[in-house]
Specification:
Blueprint lengths: L3 E2 L4 E3 L17 H8 L6 H4 L7 H16 L2 E3 L5 E10 L2 E13 L8 E2 L6 H14 L1 E2 L3 E5 L5 H8 L7 E4 L5 E7 L2 H11 L4 E5 L1 H14 L6 E8 L6 E4 L1 E4 L4 H7 E6 L2 H10 L6 E4 L3 E6 L9 H7 L10 E4 L2 H11 L2 E5 L4 H11 L7 E4 L9 E2 L4
Parallel strand pairs: 6-11, 8-12
Antiparallel strand pairs: 1-5, 2-3, 4-5, 4-10, 5-12, 7-21, 8-11, 9-10, 13-20, 14-18, 14-19, 15-17, 16-17, 16-19
């Protein structure tokens, strides 16, 4: 049974969020961080504050106290779900995604309904735990998806989006957000009822969910038994999962030739099309001294996903510190060239395939998926005593 609850969110007092939103901490590079930090009330000052530990955690905690005193942020009077609509364009196509911000249980019992699908690393978990200890707030939401075969959750969420939104804004990535506070008791009950029997697949935020569980086990403090979570039905037309391409700082061409049959492609677009259309689930693209389409020799893996096959075979001898990741194929090529290495294009897959893979093998390699767009930080915050 999924433990999904409303909570008393803390939100920006201004209903206009154009200057407030930022991405999650793990996708904010130095240039973007510098640009966002020029906006004095941007959520980046809490999500990824300037400086080194422990000063950056102390800075975030001090800023939280100041913003909640000076009126920059204000707490909603009643527990609520927050219905979120995102309008964005991907590959020239306009899309709409709808979901809710909620408090998702992080106790051992609640975790039985949670399906993680990616491995975590120690370093980001240490960082996020120290931030949570210092500020006492879920600053950015994790992202989860759930099956809604009857449509009950989608109907309840849509009912909460009637009338004028309570806040709206555009992110740096051009995603238009609208937010409605859903605190009407019947709608709250309908959402909880629709989600209760569901399992939640973590789409993004594995480190933060793990940290919330650890924090609760350590402190047992008020509100530590849940974590701020954005939830979207599997069936939502705007739910998109992108493959995360790999960039290796070493040559892979010789090894790829030993593991798969390689065929030259004209350019990046042609290579992407070959990988996407191939019936071989482990087909991949390799960009090194040209564009190469690879179809592995019969040698599968239990998940049926290319990311597991690549990690166990083509990339098995590449050190973690020599790897980087991006869902942008053109950027992968650029980074590989700069590093003097190779880019590996991963075959696209669906949410259903991710679910089956997680069931079959448990945890996939880090950065296996990229649910697009990332849910913004700054729509609502959840203090640990927010229920």
């Amino acid at each position: 049974m999924a433990d999904v609850r409303p909570f008393r969110g803390v939100r920006y007092s201004s209903p206009t969020l154009n200057s407030a939103l930022c991405p999650p901490y793990d996708v904010i590079g130095p240039e973007l961080a510098a640009a966002l930090r020029r906006r004095m009330a941007n959520a980046v000052h809490l999500e990824l504050p300037r400086g080194e530990p422990p000063a950056k955690y102390e800075r975030a905690a001090a800023l939280w106290r100041r913003w909640t005193v000076d009126g920059t942020l204000a707490r909603d009077p009643r527990p609520a779900f927050y219905a979120i609509e995102e309008r964005y364009t991907l590959n020239g196509k306009k899309r709409v995604r709808r979901g809710i911000l909620s408090a998702l249980g992080a106790t051992p019992k609640a975790a039985k309904a949670i399906i993680p699908h990616e491995r975590t690393l120690a370093k980001p978990k240490v960082d996020r735990l120290k931030m949570l200890d210092a500020v006492g707030v879920n600053i950015s939401p994790i992202f989860g998806v759930f099956a809604d075969p009857s449509g009950a959750a989608r109907r309840a969420i849509a009912a909460g989006m009637k009338g004028r939104p309570d806040a709206a804004g555009r992110s740096h990535a051009g995603v238009d957000y609208r937010l409605w506070v859903v605190d009407e008791p019947k709608l709250v009950a309908a959402i909880r009822k629709a989600l209760a029997p569901r399992s939640i697949l973590i789409a993004d935020g594995h480190h933060r969910y793990s940290v919330s569980r650890d924090h609760h086990a350590k402190t047992k403090g008020p509100g530590t038994d849940a974590v701020l979570t954005y939830l979207v039905p599997d069936e939502d037309a705007g739910l998109v999962v992108l493959p995360t391409h790999r960039i290796a700082g070493v040559s892979l061409l010789k090894r790829a030739g030993a593991l798969a049959s390689l065929k030259k492609a004209r350019n990046l677009g042609a290579l992407e099309a070959l990988v996407a259309k191939s019936k071989n689930p482990y087909a991949f693209g390799l960009i090194e001294n040209g564009f190469h389409f690879g179809e592995p020799k019969p040698r599968g893996c239990r998940s049926g996903l290319a990311v597991e096959w690549l990690g166990a075979n083509l990339l098995s001898q590449v050190r973690p510190d020599a790897m980087s990741y991006t869902p942008d194929a053109a950027l992968a090529v650029k980074k590989a060239k700069a590093a003097g290495g190779a880019a590996v294009l991963v075959k696209p897959f669906t949410v259903a395939q991710v679910r089956r893979a997680a069931k079959a093998v448990g945890l996939l390699p880090q950065k296996s998926t990229f649910f697009y767009p990332k849910i913004a930080t700054g729509l609502a915050f959840r203090p640990l005593d927010a229920e």
